[in-house]
Amino acid sequence: MAVTLEKIPGQEERVILSMGPQHPSTHGVLRLVLELEGETVVRALFDIGYLHTGFEKSFEALTYSQGITLTDRMDYLAPLSNNLGFCLAIEKLLGLEVPPRAQWTRVLLTELTRIQSHLVWLGTHALELGAMSVFLYCFREREDILRIFELVSGQRMMTSYFRVGGLALEPPLGWLRRVEKFVEMFPPRLEEYEGLLTRNPIWLKRTVGVGHISTEDAVALSLSGPSLRASGVKWDIRKAEPYSSYDKFQFNVPTRPEGDVYARYLVRMDEMRESLKIVRQAMEGMPGGPIKANAPHFVLPDRESMKTSIEALIYHFKLVTEGFHPPVGEVYQTIESPRGEIGFYIVSDGSPKPYRCHVRAPSFANLQTLLKIVEGHLLADVVACIASLDTVLGEVDR
Amino acid sequence: MGNILKEITNSATALAKGFSITFKTMLRPTVTENYPHQPPTFEDRYRGLHVLRRDENGLEKCVACFLCAAACPSNCIYIEAAENTAAHRISAAERYAKVYNIDYNRCIFCGYCVEACPCDAITHGHGFEISAYDTNALIYRKEQLLEPLPASAKK
Ligand code: SF4
Ligand code: SF4
């Protein structure tokens, strides 16, 4: 049944408008039903499910390590963050300790993921409000990050690079030089985006005071991520429940009190700077050592020993053909993805495939604030509101 | 009146600043790849179309152990094994893959098969232009996946 709004008796002159699912500004296939009084939105409803993929069910049919490939595709703008969340959950279940080098590399790559995800958000957000060149510049810089991902993992977007217990492959020699080049090139580019937008009167008119959400409402509607921090709540999982050695890195959590579209813009811009700081620290402090935990029952042996030791070869065969058997139990792990708090809840019955895997997707939870923030605004501002929440529909309809 | 003047100057400075950035960008070297007209560039590890490798004698490396098929999350590898004989030797080990199909309708280029293969028989090449009008054409046979015989091994 399609979602509709019933007309209120006595107010039949109001127009019920269906926006989407095929609308370029909805970042995927989101359908909104809006009741308009003139050009002002009085009520709104949304209709999701057009992109339903059944990821959560598919997890049950794949072994734990095969499931990593699904997490890439859920939030296709932050594949490595999702890889990390899923791997951390399984490692928690197994009680596996990940070597420092793998942890540092994971932090470095997920922070780059945050930057590239925010670049897509900035580019599309600006494009929808009429700034074409920002879009082109953002995608130019994003491509540099994607090339780094391709360099280490072999794929620009569907990386599947993290594995239970560490990384899939040894990063290639000299890859940090590529990261360094990016880190040096990026800050002036960030200034350029700010130069185009931050004080631009058109940008200010379209964003300041639009889509306001108060601190109380934001918390009550379980908003998370940069959108929550733009409403004045200093909540970041990297600080609150540090994972993957985030407690060893120095960075700030930018917040703004205003809670409008402009504040969400400023918070994300600052976040990119902070991420850059973390990347720099990870690069400089990159420890040596192995990239995988030494746990032959759960982690594939490295290729060298697989080819020279019969024992390692047997483990390799066993892991590939049937996977590993985790202890019976359940586990929940959240991390801070570019969109907010992403959590993986895994129930294990001791077999090599999860009994159930539920994902607490930040886009899904954040989307419910949309109805609140569009009310009373002009139809054209709905576009700005959707963009400012930065939802990915692949994650909403999982 | 004062307000309007202020707004005009504000807008003018913002415009000037914006245009200075776009003009500066015009003078920078282009980064766009001219793809259909020029070949695109890849990093070495790029996971493209698979290539089945041969050893230094021109024999196929694949020994039909089915590990790649077991590792594949999308179940797209189909193998039929057969025994090597002295007269008909395809691979250096006991068995070889008589049929080796990869269904590119399903393959997600995740690299799990490459990671699983104990003989380095299956690898990723850099090919990517596989679009076809017919889905049957996307099921690649062993003959399409095998790397050509090296010149040294040709009789
Ligand atoms: S790349 Fe992945 S999906 Fe494709 S054949 Fe290999 S394992 Fe299967
Ligand atoms: S390609 Fe490798 S993993 Fe697959 S059957 Fe052949 S030898 Fe085994």
Q: What does the model show?
A:
The complex is a heterodimer of chains A (398) and B (155). By secondary structure, chain A is mostly helical. Chain A is built from 16 helices and eight strands. Chain A has one domain (55-396): Cytochrome-c3 Hydrogenase, chain B. Chain A has helices at residues 55-59, 64-74, 79-94, 100-128, 132-153, 175-197, 201-207, 215-220, 226-229, 237-240, 261-284, 303-308, 310-322, 362-374, 379-389, 393-396; strands at 15-19, 31-37, 40-47, 162-163, 166-167, 329-337, 340-348, 356-360. The two termini of chain A are 19 Å apart. With 155 residues, chain B is of the alpha+beta class. Chain B has a domain at 50-153: Alpha-Beta Plaits (2-Layer Sandwich), CATH 3.30.70. In chain B, the strands form two sheets. Chain B has a three-stranded antiparallel β-sheet. Chain B has a two-stranded antiparallel ribbon with strand order 1-4. The A-B interface holds A 62, 65-67, 69-70, 133, 137, 140, 143, 147, 150-155, 158, 160, 168-169, 172, 192, 195-196, 199-202, 300, 306-307, 313, 316-317, 320-321 and B 7, 10-11, 14, 17-18, 21-22, 25, 31, 42-47, 67, 70-71, 73, 108-112, 115-116, 118, 124. One iron/sulfur cluster (SF4) is lined by residues 62-68, 79, 97, 116-117, 119, 121-122 of chain B.
